[in-house]
Every structure is written in C-alpha cells, then in structure tokens.
Write a structure and sequence with these properties.
Elements: H1 13-25, E1 50-54, E2 57-58, E3 64-68, E4 71-72, E5 78-82, E6 85-86, E7 94-98, E8 101-102, E9 108-112, E10 115-116, E11 122-126, E12 128-129, E13 136-137, E14 141-142, E15 148-152, E16 155-156, E17 162-166, E18 169-170, E19 176-180, E20 182-183, E21 190-191, E22 194-195, E23 201-205, E24 208-209, E25 215-219, E26 222-223, E27 230-234, E28 237-238, E29 244-248, E30 251-252, E31 258-262, E32 265-266, E33 272-276, E34 279-280, E35 286-290, E36 293-294, E37 300-304, E38 307-308, E39 314-318, E40 348-349, E41 355-359, E42 362-363, E43 369-373, E44 376-377, E45 383-385, E46 390-391, E47 397-398, H2 423-441, E48 446-448, E49 451-453, E50 457-459, E51 462-464, H3 467-486, H4 499-505, H5 512-519, H6 577-654, E52 663-672, E53 675-686, E54 690-699, E55 702-711
Parallel strand pairs: 1-3, 2-4, 3-5, 4-6, 5-7, 6-8, 7-9, 8-10, 9-11, 10-14, 11-15, 14-16, 15-17, 16-18, 17-19, 18-22, 19-23, 22-24, 23-25, 24-26, 25-27, 26-28, 27-29, 28-30, 29-31, 30-32, 31-33, 32-34, 33-35, 34-36, 35-37, 36-38, 37-39, 38-40, 39-41, 40-42, 41-43, 42-44, 43-45, 44-46, ...
Antiparallel strand pairs: 12-13, 20-21, 48-49, 50-51, 52-53, 53-54, 54-55
Length: 713
C-alpha cells in the first residue's frame, strides 16, 4: 500500500516547522484540555485527552496532540508535529514529525511521511527527495506486524521484517533489507535492496534476495529460485537451491553450486568454480583457475583454460602456444569427424575418467591419461607421457611418437611378473632363452653372445642343419617304407610269420599242437543211431569203425591219392587240398596284416614323439611370454603410482604456495590408472629471505621423499 494512494493535504515544510514552533511556545505551564493560541482552535473531546496547537483533534481517551493538524482517534496515543494521524484502531501508538500515519496498536511513526499499519511496528525516518529533479519518493511504509523501517523510503510488508537505510524493501516473513537503492535516472530505474523471500536478507545497494533463507550482500546481487542461496559481492546471481555466488559477475544456478571469483558460471549440481571465467556444468564437477571448463560429471579442471568434458576426468593444464602466433587456439573438432584436432592449445580431458596434466595435453579416450606438453592419449585406456607423446593404441603407454621416440632411462630391474624389464634383463633373458633352445634342438646347436650356432642332424648319412629339413628327411624315409609295404608291384618280401608264430608273438605260451588244440571248440552233442551199413568186403578192404585199427597204410610206393575227400570239420578230420590252400592264404594274410599294423604303429609313434617335443617347446615359450607380460603389467602399475605421487605433490604445493605464515603444512592427493597417492609436506619460513621444506608421497609400496632450502639476498 503506497501513501500516495491516500488522500492527504498538501505539504508545506516551512509552514509545518513554524506551526510546530508556535505550538510549543504557546503551551501552558499547567496542562488543561486545550492550550491557548492564535488561529483555529484545537479540540480534545476524548476522556482525559489533551490538544495543544493549531487545529488538532484528540478523540481518544488519555491521548495527546501537539502541533498543527494532528488527529488522534485511538486511546493512550500521542501525536507531535504536523498533520500526523493515529487511527482509532491504534491504541498506545505514537506519531512524531510530519504527515505520519499509524493505524495499529503499539506502533510508532517518527519522521516525515511514514506509514505504519502493523501491530508492534515502527517507522523512523521519512520520504526521500531525488536530487536530480526534486521529486518526492515515498516515505517509510510498515505494513506487517512486528516490523520496522528506519531511514528513507523503506518498505517492510513482511511479518517481523526490517528495512534500514534508503528505499529498502523487506516483503518476506522475517526478512531484512539494509542499505540503499541504485538510481539509474528515474523512479522506474531505481534498483532497491529487496528481501522478498521468507527469512531472506539483502545488504548493500540494489540487491535482491527472492528465495527463502537467501542472502544478497554487496552491489546489485540477486538470489532467486530455491531456498538458501547466497550472493556476495557485485553483480552476482545465485538462482539455484542452496547455491553460492561470491565475487563479481558470478552465476550459480544449480543445486548447491558454488561460484567464487569473477565471471564464473556454475550450472552443475554440487559443482564448484573458483577463479576467473570458469564454466562448470557437470554434476559434482570442479574448475579452479582461469578459463577452465568442467562439463563432465565428477570432472575436475585446474589451471589455465583446461577442458574436462569426460565423466570423472581430470585436467591440470595451461595454455601452450602450439603455432607460435601468440594467440590462444581452441580447435576441438574442426572437420566434424569426432576427433579433437591437433591444433588445440589447451589441456583437454574428454574421455570418461580421463586425466590431462600439462600444457596443451589431450586425453580423449575413456580412462586415458596425458602428461607433459602437447601429449595426446587418443584411445581408451592409453597413457601418453612427455613432450609431443602420442598414445593411439588401447592399453598402451607411450613416451614419444613415431616421429619422436624417447628412451625410458634408469629403469630398475623388474622383480614381479608384470614389472617392466630393462635392456640388461632382456639380454640376460635372451642368452638364457637362446641357450635353452640350443639345448632343446641338440645336434651341436649353441648360443653365445647373441650368435646362434645351427645344429647338425645326421639322417641316413646326410647332414641337416635345421629341424624342418631333418624331419622332412625322416618323413620322406617313413613314406618310402610305407609305400614299399603297401605297393602291390613291389619286391616280394620275406616269408611272413605263421599263424602259430603270430600267436606266440602276441603272448601265446605252448606248442603248436597246443595252439591248434586251442582253436578247437568244445565237442558237440551225440547224434542219433544211424541205419546198419552193408556187409564188409574182402581181406584187403578197410572197415573204419573197427576199434582195433589205429593205423591205416595205403598201398603203393608213391602213395595213394584219395579222391572226393570232403572238407574236414572236426579237429581229427582229413583235410583236402582246398582247405590246405585256404589255410595257407589265411596265414599269409594274417602276416601281412600284422606287418602293416606294426609299420603304422611305428610311424604313429614317431609322429607322436615329434608332436610331444614341439608341444613342450611351445609351452615353455608361452611361459616365457607370460612372464614378460606380467613384468610389463607390474611396470604399468609402478608408472601409475609415480604419476599419482606427482599429482599429489602438485596438489600439496598448489595449496601452500600462497600462504603467508611461517609454518606451512600441505596435503595433496593424486590418482592415476586406479592407483592413489598421498603427499604431505612442511615448510618453515625463516624471515623473508630463507626457507626450508621437506615432504613425502606414498602410493602402495612406492615412496618418494623431498627436501630443500632457499635463500635470497
């Protein structure tokens, strides 16, 4: 509610002052209901009321009016001055000065054109005349209960609010506005201190505190949006939730974002920017220095113009004038192929958990790291160390580039399976491997001083100097043997073993008769009685079923041929020529089969032996390779630990460099490739011309110590 919206009499400051003076001079020594004076009489119809001056009216009981044109309608109230007004609802109120208005109980208005409409509220001061055009600006205006306005043109509309100074506005419950307004030339251009949020505070000039429990301190700072924001300094904006902007021209628009310094922008939740011109948009990201960007979640950018865009990435960087033109170039992706250009002159960490430390370094791949000057780690899990180093293969560490290769010097002997090895160890391993291979090859092979002496294998009176040709000769000989065995057109071989001899070789024990007997099966059942045969012949005839005949001798000096002999069945049956020939053929076939089997088994045994020797050789070479791989892996870990300790030393030094005390203690942490390190240091300043320091860093079982002293004169 503005006092200009009410009907008020015209104000004449000179006349008002004269009226107050005359009224005071005309007061009687002994008070009555009214006092005598020239001009319009005052009236005091209220019980025990008193009016003294010009045209005063006191309607409230036990109330008093002094001066000119005052009106007191409430009980136990007092108006002193000119044209003051105390409403009937404002018991025990006070109005002192010129054109003050009090409408609620236990309130007071003191000064010039103050308006108090709240209970237990106060306004001290008055209206403001602008010097540029003499225009009158509202006096103090107190609307809410238990509120106060002190100064010129303040407005307190919030309960328990306070406005102190010039043209402050405290509209939030429990809010405070202290200081003054900033005049840009006309009334519409006035920028006031405004505390509109519940329990908000605006201190200084032209500040605005809009959110609950927010604070704006300084010149033209603003808090808005959520609760608990803080803006301190000049031209800062804190518009998030519990965000903070301190310094000049900073903006924190996120949840719990913090921007400290000048022209920093933080819109990532729980993010931090400290320094000049930093921009942080990643959640839990940090940028410290000048011109850094931290856009990846959990990313960190420290130094000058670093770019940390990957999740969990780290940049500790400065500008590197790559082309020597003295101008900063930030060419991320000129041709749109997704690859950061080599012309970029700033430290960049794009990959997830990437680390870039140095001037103009770029860590593009996920979990990559680049250290030094203009080093590039372009693929995942790569590490580039040193000037112009390029790491373009996954899981690789590069200390140079194809155009500029560098040595790793002073490398200790590897002790673990995955440690890196130096040249001394490689030569020793080479000698050991060469000697082992020479021993495996045999044939007089030898290895000494890096020189290998070839073996000599003698096969069928021929010399062979390598394993391949030697086994080729063996294979040719075995092939020839096999061919001679199976080739039907070959030379007739020696007589094969008989069936009995084959059985003996296969483990049969006994005579040939025993073997033949073993071939006979069990006797079959007896057959039925046959019919009676014809009568026997003469004396020379043979009766076969005579039990007394054990020997049968046929006549003829050259033997007698018995024709039409059927194939024998039982073991004691006579065999005909056909059966004998068939038996001989079976014996020959058995001998051939045995010979073939033995030859094949011999060849297979030779092949199996050769395969086993080569398999053993291959297994031993694999074991050596695994050992070398393990040593390189351990070396990777040691390099990561050294890098983490370097980062920890840098963090320790960074946080103690600007301290001014005689005793300085710094602590820093570092991380690289999954390895963490802690560094602790102490410095003692001896006057202004000398200092001593010592410190140490630890990472796993790796340790590093430092100490130093400095003097000046």
């Amino acid at each position: 509610m503005s006092i200009f919206s009410q009907s008020r009499p015209a104000i004449d400051l000179a006349a008002n002052c004269l009226a107050i003076t005359l009224a005071a001079a005309s007061m009687p020594i002994i008070a009555g209901e009214t006092c005598q004076h020239p001009g319009p009489a005052s009236i005091a119809p209220g019980s025990n009321a008193f009016a003294c001056g010009f045209a005063n009216q006191v309607n409230g009981a036990n109330s008093t009016a002094f001066g000119r044109g005052n009106e007191v309608s409430a009980a136990s109230s007092t108006a002193f001055g000119h044209n003051n007004f105390i409403a009937q609802t404002a018991s025990t109120a006070t109005a002192i000065g010129i054109t003050n208005f009090v409408t609620q109980s236990r309130s007071a208005a003191v000064g010039y054109i103050n308006d108090v409409t709240g209970i237990n509220s106060n306004a001290f001061g008055g209206a403001l005349y602008r010097m540029s055009d003499g225009q009158l600006i509202n006096g103090n205006y107190v609307l809410a209960n238990q509120s106060n306005a002190f100064g010129l043109g303040n407005s307190t509309t919030g309960m328990r609010a306070n406005g102190f100074g010039i043209l402050n506005v405290a509209s939030g419950r429990g809010s405070n506005a202290f200081g003054g307004a900033y005049d840009e030339g006309d009334e519409a251009g006035l920028v006031r201190n405004t505390a509109s949020g519940t329990y908000s505070n605006a201190f200084g000039t032209g500040n605005q505190a809009e959110g609950a429990s927010s604070t704006a301190v300084g010149f033209r700072n603003r808090t808005s949006g959520g609760r608990g924001n803080t803006a301190v300094g000049e031209g800062n904006i804190a518009s998030g939730l519990e965000s903070t902007a301190m310094g000049s021209g900073n903006e924190a628009s996120s949840i719990r974002g913090v921007a400290i310094g000048s022209r920093n922008v933080v819109d990532g939740n729980s993010a931090l920017a400290v320094g000049y011109g930093n921009a942080v948009s990643g959640t839990f990201a940090n940028a410290v220095g000048a011109g850094n960007i931290a856009s990846g979640e959990y990313s960190n950018a420290f130094g000058n113009a670093g770019r940390a865009t990957g999740v969990g990435s780290l940049v500790v960087a400065s500008w590197y004038d790559l082309d020597g033109n003295g101008q900063q170039s930030f060419d991320l992706d000129l041709d749109g192929d997704g690859i950061v250009e080599s012309s970029s002159e700033f430290g960049i960490a794009i990959g997830t958990s990437a680390v870039a430390i140095g001037a103009g370094v770029r860590a593009v791949g996920d979990y990559s790291a680049a250290f030094g000057v203009n080093a590039v780690a372009s693929v995942d899990y790569s590490v580039a160390i040193g000037y112009n180093a390029v790491a373009d293969r996954e899981y690789s560490i590069s200390v140079g580039s194809p155009a500029r290769m560098n040595q790793i010097a002073n490398l200790a002997d590897g002790t673990e399976a995955t440690d890196a090895v130096n040249l001394r160890q490689m030569r020793a391993a080479d000698d050991e491997l060469g000697a082992g291979i020479a021993a495996w090859l045999g044939g007089g092979a030898a290895y000494a001083g890096g020189v290998f002496t070839a073996p000599v294998y003698v096969i069928q009176s021929n010399n062979y100097n390598n394993v391949g040709t030697a086994f080729g000769a063996v294979d040719a000989a075995l092939t020839d043997i096999n061919q001679r065995i199976v080739d039907a057109g070959g030379v007739q071989g020696e007589r094969g073993l008989s069936a009995y001899e084959v059985a003996v070789r296969n483990g049969f024990a006994g005579t040939e008769a025993d073997w033949l007997g073993s071939l006979q099966g069990p006797a079959g059942p007896g057959g039925p009685q046959g019919p009676e045969g014809p009568a026997g012949g003469g004396p020379r005839s043979v009766v076969y079923d005579n039990d007394g005949r054990d020997v049968l001798t046929l006549a003829g000096e050259n033997g007698t041929t018995i024709g039409n002999v059927a194939d024998g069945v039982a073991a004691t049956d006579a065999a005909n020529v056909r059966q004998v020939q068939a038996g001989d053929a079976a014996t020959l076939a058995s001998a051939n089969t045995y010979t073939d089997t033995v030859a094949v088994q011999t060849l297979q045994s030779a092949n199996d032996y050769t395969d086993s020797r080569f398999a053993a050789w291959d297994a031993q070479l694999d074991s050596i390779q695994r050992g070398i791989d393990d040593r390189f892996h351990q070396q990777d870990r040691r390099i990561d630990r050294q890098g983490a300790m370097s980062g920890a030393f840098a963090g320790m030094a960074m946080n103690t460099a600007g301290l001014s005390g005689q005793n300085r203690i710094g602590v820093g942490v570092g991380v690289q490739g999954g390895e963490q390190a802690l560094a602790v240091g102490y410095q003692r300043a001896i006057g202004n011309r000398a200092s001593v320091s010592l410190g140490g860093a630890f990472s796993g079982n790796e340790k590093s110590m430092m100490g130093g002293a400095g003097f000046s004169w």
